[in-house]
């Protein structure tokens, strides 16, 4: 089943063109990655899907409904969650409070369901359970990233969009985050992952898209892109 379809999307910031005629599709249960260099337009793609930036052209369909003009807060309630780059957790609140806040504003989630959702996140992220009463600001970078993802999952979304979850983390922690992404998919979620860490992202993704200067330059199975000569040269470093 088709979960998300982005059709011919173009976005400008004034005179700067961020995306040109970009189309992607995400099916239910897939991990899809969008890779590309700095400024290729990856973040803009997610912001456009969440309707946080104005589109010049293009349509977004989520679970076959046209959400191009639906306000951001309603898109989330429909089951599409966006975990932005940079974690943005509440440092002065505890891990538990940060998670609890993830459900705020969603009337679909009843008070009695909140604890169940928290427990689900603790199962997925045991480290957050251990640190549930600790201030968010006292967590390590990797743990803060886990908290940001877990907070997104508190909305119980069908599709979770992750913007550079590996940014600034040590390689061993990056591996942990990618393993978690696989586990998240195993719980029945669909994942759209934006990454500069192309090698890792392609190794866990079912399919991938390569963005170059706002255009989709290449697409294919994760494993195929991983072995593609152009991708290797441009995004995986000469030694790969
Ligand atoms: N608010 C803005 N105003 C003006 N230009 C912007 C704005 N946001 C992004 N841009 C520009 O749009 C282009 C695409 O940016 P975007 O952040 O989508 O790229 P990205 O692939 O996510 O890059 P990065 O990996 O560095 O986050 C870039 O040229 C960027 O400078």
Automatic annotation (TrEMBL):
SMART domains under this entry? AAA
Its protein name is ABC transporter ATP-binding protein
Q: Which organism is it from?
A: Qiania dongpingensis
User: For this chain's UniProt record, which GO biological process terms are given?
Assistant: L-amino acid transport
MF GO annotations: ATP binding; ATP hydrolysis activity; branched-chain amino acid transmembrane transporter activity
Tell me the ranges covered by the ABC transporter domain, including all copies: 4-238
According to the record, the segments passing through the membrane are none
Q: Which Pfam families match?
A: ABC_tran (PF00005)
> Can the keyword Transport be found in this entry's annotation?
yes
Which keywords does this chain's UniProt record carry? Amino-acid transport, ATP-binding, Nucleotide-binding, Transport
The family line of this record is: Belongs to the ABC transporter superfamily.
């Amino acid at each position: 089943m088709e979960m998300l379809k982005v059709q011919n999307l173009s976005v400008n910031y004034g005179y700067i063109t961020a995306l040109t005629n970009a189309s992607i599709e995400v099916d239910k249960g897939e991990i899809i990655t969008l890779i590309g260099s700095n400024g290729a337009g990856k973040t803009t793609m997610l912001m456009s899907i969440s309707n946080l930036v104005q589109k010049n052209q293009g349509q977004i369909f989520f679970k076959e409904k046209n959400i191009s003009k639906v306000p951001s807060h309603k898109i989330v309630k429909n089951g599409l969650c966006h975990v932005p780059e940079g974690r943005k957790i509440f440092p002065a609140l505890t891990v538990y409070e940060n998670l609890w806040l993830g459900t705020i504003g969603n009337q679909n989630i009843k008070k009695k369901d909140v604890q169940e959702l928290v427990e689900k996140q603790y199962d997925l992220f045991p480290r957050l359970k251990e640190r549930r009463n600790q201030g968010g600001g006292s967590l390590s970078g990797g743990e803060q990233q886990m908290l940001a993802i877990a907070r997104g999952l508190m909305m119980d979304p069908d599709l979770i969009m992750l913007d550079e979850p590996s940014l600034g983390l040590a390689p061993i922690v990056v591996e942990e985050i990618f393993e978690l992404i696989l586990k998240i998919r195993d719980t029945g979620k669909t994942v759209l992952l934006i990454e500069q860490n192309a090698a890792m992202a392609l190794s866990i993704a079912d399919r991938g898209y390569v963005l170059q200067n706002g255009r989709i330059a290449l697409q294919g199975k994760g494993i195929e892109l991983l072995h593609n000569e152009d991708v290797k040269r441009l995004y995986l470093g000469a030694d790969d």
